Every structure is written in structure tokens, then in C-alpha cells.
Amino acid sequence: MNIDLDLLRKKHILFFSIMVLLILTFFIAIMMHGYIGSFSRYIADDYCTSGKLATLGFWPAQSFWYNNWTGRVSFTFFVSIFELFDSNIIKYLPTIFIFMILISGYFLFYSIIKNFQIINRRILSLLISVGIIFTTFFTLPNIGQNLYWMTGAVTYLFPINFVFFLFGLIILFRKKFPFQHWIANLLVGLFIFFLAFVGSGFSEVLSVLQIVLLCMIILVLSIKQRFLSIKNLWMVALIGSIIGLVIMVSAPGNEIRLRQLLPNQGLLIFLYNSFRYFFKYLVLWFVKNINIIWPISSLLILMTYFVRKHFYFGKEILFNQVIKFSFMIISGLLILIFVCFLPSTWVTAQAPETRVLIFPTFLLVFLINFVSIIIGLFFIEIVTINENHKKTLSLIIGFYILYFLVAVPIFEARQVYLQRPEAVKYAISWEEREFQIKEKILSGETDLIVMMIPINILGLEDINTNSTHWINICAAEYYGVDSISAE
Predict the structure, then answer these.
(1) Which among 61, 203, 321, 437 is placed 20 to 30 Å from 310, CA to CA?
(2) pTM (2 decimals)?
């Protein structure tokens, strides 16, 4: 018995060390995006929201955007919160957003793993969180506009925190309410409503996605009759999400914004185009990112196998039940990925902007991780390993992990670092222009002609030669001058 405990302790230390090493490597790779993001500066829409905040004030600015441009009330509220700080805050936002998504991701995955009899659930939850964030960030079609750009990050990345906390809380309280007193439980319900409502107010895509996901969960629970008293939390979340969507689509400003878009071409063409964009992105994402997907998947398969064999002490895993559950989850994820393309296709009659694809990318990462875990769970039944070959297999796995660390996170982090010269050049040019603008304003000029910044890693428009261009108008309002143009 002592020998077995000794062996288990050694395996536990080894596995814990491997997980810590992976977490640190993933984290360093992710933080490389935070470093490159530190060279971000105001650009494009940033000038518009900041300009209105400066000229109108906080609450009048919220009213202006709702009535004149967009019903995304959560976006305009939070972007105004960030803009209340000095403009230098934009340098730190990418890093802040990274830490936030890691924390909310950890909370969600711990809420799920907490229900399983596994050793080291907390460190395992952290590993899954950093692994999913790493895979998502390094397979996004437009990480610059999803993370480095303040407007894009607040619209598409930041609200995912609300979704993670929302579902994490409901899963955490899935069996019973946390408190004895009804007032405390009422506050929990109100907080869940708040998370759902706010998360639903950032963008039409996320709002529809959140509502469809909640409806799917409620439908499955109804069929399986597993509601009990906790069913109210799912319904509260659904009601909050629907109210958020209604408020967003009811905004008078939407009509003004929609006039600039192509008219919808009818239901059949809309569905056909949505499926075409969905299928195209699905295929291209796998093809473009296979160098990341296959190592992540195989590593997860091996780690799941190891956890199940040595550190899982729960009920016996029944193959037939897991297959049915897996089919349901995989089908649900594919439906949700398809749903991501519906709102943009309906509103714009075109393929979604690359920054909108953060939502299907997250879901695709969840999909490959889930499939890998399922394969890992049944690896024992699929492959029989001879006792004499276990040491050899352990060496192979050890070398594979070292290869993985070098070939995937470290390599990808280096690729991001190679953008540094361009990012630094842009930041220096922006600072020089900012100094030039302030000097001209101090000298009493109101019609400014400033230096042109030719490049930026975000691929966004900046102040240009046309003083009547929308960005120039927004920048003029932001700086408090009559006009501004670049040459």
C-alpha cells in the first residue's frame, strides 16, 4: 500500500509540475499580445466616443449614441468608463483585458470541474483557461481589432467576461441556492439578471448567441426534467438577455446606422449566405490553424488520459452515456457557431467583419477541446498499453511536451513579437503627432494640419487629408478644434 501511495505521490508531483510549466508557457505567450498591445493608441472610432464624452458629458453621451447611432448600451457605457481616464489608459487595456478573460475563464471552468472527483481541480481549471485563451487568441482572424483596439475590444472581447461569469455562477449553483435567507438568494438572482442583461447589450451577435444558448439549455433540462428549484436561474438569465436585446434593437439610432448598409435580400438568400459564410469560416479556420490545433488536441488527449487513469476517483464513466452527451454538445456547438453568422448577414447582407469572428472562434476552440477530452477519456478502451512499454511511452510523452512547448506557444509568441518594430514605429509617430497637435492648440490654432501616420498594425483608418471625413470630424471634436487634417 505504501509503495502505491509513493508511486501516486511521484506521479502527482510530476503531473503538477507539467501543468505549472504549461500554464507559465501559455501565459507568457498570451502576455506577448499584451506587450504589443501596449503600443496601441487612439484610432478610428476611439476619437468619436471620446469626443462625445468630452463635449457632452457622461450621461448625455449615452443618450446621444442611443438616439443617433447604436443601441449597444453596454458598449457605450463601458467604453465611456474607460475614457474617463487619461488617454494613456489605452496602453494598459490589452493587458487588463487579458487578465480579466483569464480570471472569468478560470471561474467558468472551475465551476464545471468542481463537480468531478479529480485531484488538483483548481490548477487543472487554470490550465484549461489559459489553454483556451491561448488557442483562441492565436487563431483569431483579427487579434489586433479584438484586443489592441479599444473600441473593438470593448465591443467583442470584454463582454465575454460577463458570459463566462453568468454561466459559471448558474453552474456553480446548479443544485441549490448558496444562502439560507431568501433576500440573499434574491440578490444572487438579480446579479445573474444583471450579468445577462449587460452581456446582451454589447452587440447583436453576442445577444442572439446568448439567448439561443440559454434556450437550448432550458429545452434540454425540460426534456430531462432536471430543473428542480434552480430552474429559475436559467429563466432569469434568459429574461435578462431578451430585455437587453429588445432595448438594443429598439434604439432610434439603429435606423440611422442601417441606412448606410446594404438592404437585406430576402429570407432564402439570407439563410444560404449565412450557411456559406459559416461553412467557409469553419473550413478555413481548421486549415489555417492546423499547426496549433493538432498539438493542442493531442496534448489534451494525453493529459485527459493521464488524469482519468491516475487522478479521477468518481463514478465509472459509461461509454454509451458519454457518446449521447457528446453528440448533444457537439451538435449544440455547431448550431451556435452557425448562429454567430446570422445577425451580421441579416443586417449587412455581407460576411461578418473579421473582428466579429471572435465568437465562432471561441466556440470552435471549445469544440476541439471537448472532442479531445472525450477521446482522452476513452483512450484506455481504444488503446491497450503493454506494461513493459509504459516507461518508453512516458519518455515519448515527455519529449512530446517539450516539443509542444517549443513548437507552439514559444514559436507563436515569437511571431507576435516580430510585430514590435511596426507597433513601436506607429506609437512613436502617434506621440509625435499628439505633441504637434497640443503645440498648435496652445498657439491658438483651430484648423489643424498635422503629420500623416501611414501605417498601423490594426488595419484601421486614421486621421487623413480630408477634414470632412468622419474620423477627422471625430478627432476635431476630441481635440476641441474646428477641423483637423493630415498631410
Answers:
(1) 321
(2) 0.91
